[in-house]
Design goal:
Strand order of the largest sheet: 5-13-10-6-9-7-8
Structural class: alpha/beta
Mean pLDDT: 81
Number of strands: 13
Low-confidence stretches: 1-86
Helix content: 25-40%
Distance between the termini: 48 Å
Shape: globular
Order of helices and strands: EHEEHEHEEHEHEHEHHEEHEEH
Length: about 375
């Protein structure tokens, strides 16, 4: 199997936007060459005009055959039915051809990834298709304020983190991918643990996730990418259920420094519904240390029900993107000002917390 080609991160070529269906529609019809004609064939015979089939007259008539006139209802019905059948068959054939072409590219290694391992084609056609039923049918996510995300250029989305397992980051990624009018992709910054777990590591790279460090974040933002970060980290997703929707410390404000250096806006994001998918009522710290995990959750169903206890509860989610906080008006040395970073970090945190409280008041039920 050939190796996948690696392209530079600043490559501006569109990925996954083309399809075989559009090219097939514009392909000219084949013409038979003159050398393939034979004597005595139909081409040498006089060509007769093909007449339309006769249509039986209406009841009460003389029963003579009636030829439908062009534009008549009878002719229109026949034409629409034929076109619809051809269109359906053609659409199915194009989908099958597209799927086979996708499989061939994957098997031969004829696809592209960027410097971080992001595979746009696999993400759009496979991974997002796997996450979308969970997003739409299971958690029934409602998205608000997506218009606050810029249509182009770099931006940093800062969100709260919760839920014992980091499903909120994946749902936020689907929300941006499916609802933004410019079809933008969200590149998430993930913890070190994500990239040491087998299988999870590869899937995270394919989805466009990268290590939560300032160097990777600045590089993505400099290339005009949309970057997502959850500053609470393990303190957010590993907090007990009694502290749900209470934001933990946002670290030392490194995300603010990154945004200031690149001059990109900071977009606060509040997620309601993830706190209840795995109500964490305890933490087996000894077992967590033995396994190398930051915590080992104990919920009303896990580990008591075994694998069944790992199924999240079907809560109703709301994801709201707040108004951007601009950073391009600050001088270059502002990124080194600790007081400014503290103030901006506190502003982002307070805006997320205030929106969480507002969404909780508006919520009718955890599950509806």
């Amino acid at each position: 199997m050939a190796d996948a080609k690696v392209i530079p991160f600043d490559d501006d070529r569109s990925r996954g936007s083309g399809g075989s269906g559009g090219n097939a529609a514009q392909r000219p019809a084949r013409r038979r060459g003159t050398g393939s004609r034979r004597k005595g064939s139909a081409e040498s015979a006089p060509v007769r005009e093909v007449q339309p089939l006769p249509v039986r007259g209406t009841a009460g008539g003389d029963g003579d055959a009636v030829t439908p006139e062009p534009g008549s209802p009878e002719g229109a019905d026949v034409g629409v039915g034929a076109d619809a059948g051809v269109g359906a068959d053609g659409g199915l054939e194009r989908r099958i051809a597209g799927g086979l072409a996708f499989l061939r590219r994957r098997l031969t290694g004829d696809y592209e990834v960027d410097d971080f391992g992001y595979d746009a084609e696999l993400t759009d056609q496979v991974l997002m298709s796997m996450l979308r039923p969970v997003y739409e049918k299971y958690f029934r996510v409602e998205v608000k304020g997506v218009e606050n995300i810029p249509a182009e250029g770099g931006a940093l989305i800062v969100a709260n983190h919760s839920g014992t397992l980091p499903l909120d980051g994946l749902m936020m990624q689907v929300a941006v991918h499916d609802h933004h009018p410019a079809d933008r992709h969200l590149r998430l910054l993930a913890a070190d643990l994500v990239f040491v777990l087998p299988v999870v590591n590869e899937l995270a790279r394919k989805l466009g996730h990268t290590l939560a460090c300032a160097e990777d974040a600045e590089r993505l933002l400099a290339q005009g990418e949309l970057v997502g970060v959850m500053p609470e980290g393990f303190k957010g997703i590993g907090k007990p259920f009694s502290e749900r929707y209470k934001l933990q410390r946002f670290g030392r404000g490194g995300f603010v420094s990154t945004a200031l250096r690149q001059g990109v806006p900071i977009i606060p994001c509040s997620i309601v519904g993830a706190e209840e998918i795995y109500p964490m009522i305890g933490n087996a710290k000894t077992l967590a240390r033995l396994l190398g995990f930051p915590y080992f959750p104990l919920t009303p169903t896990f580990p008591w029900l075994g694998p069944l206890g790992a199924v999240p509860l079907p809560t109703k989610w709301t994801i709201q993107f707040g108004e951007p906080i601009p950073t391009d008006g600050y001088p270059a040395e502002a990124a080194e000002d600790p007081m400014l970073m503290f103030n901006l970090t506190d502003q982002v945190r307070e805006q997320i917390q205030h929106t969480l409280y507002k969404l909780l008041v508006q919520r009718r039920s955890v599950f509806f």
